[in-house]
Amino acid sequence: MRVIAGSAKGRTLRPPRTSATRPITDRAKESLFSILMPRIADRRFLDLFAGTGSVGIRHNLDVTGLAARAEVVGRDVFGYLREPPAPFDVIFVAPPQWRGLWPRAVALLDREPVWLADGALVVAQHDPSESIPLDLAHLELADERSYGRVRFTFFGARAPA
Description:
Elements: H1 26-40, E1 45-47, H2 61-64, H3 77-80, E2 88-93, H4 101-111, E3 116-126, E4 139-147, E5 150-157
Parallel strand pairs: 1-2, 2-3
Antiparallel strand pairs: 3-5, 4-5
């Protein structure tokens, strides 16, 4: 795995020590970062599951020189989302597949809209076969993009009624 853009571009990342993670393809990663690039510079980015590190760079912060600008919280995502929220500009949700975790995480974010800064975006990465409609009060579906077996579902804040 490697970093494909930004100040750490070209750096090789250490892969995870588990087979339970699913690194995304370079094509899907490049597409995602092309979409997100205007939103992430000097913004607060939350990677809720940070599996391989190819998106969240969880275990590779020292290699990329980003350690001073990041905080790693090693605990259960759902417990973390029940704590008092702090607003983020982009929230990336990419849990292990086929366990119903991404809709559960998005629903928790929806229940506590304080997690979302003004104009925030929530991005869920999942297999297309995991797509389901969500009944959300504060978030709404903004877009979906598929790249083979990777789908990104984008949610933005619902406009006030």
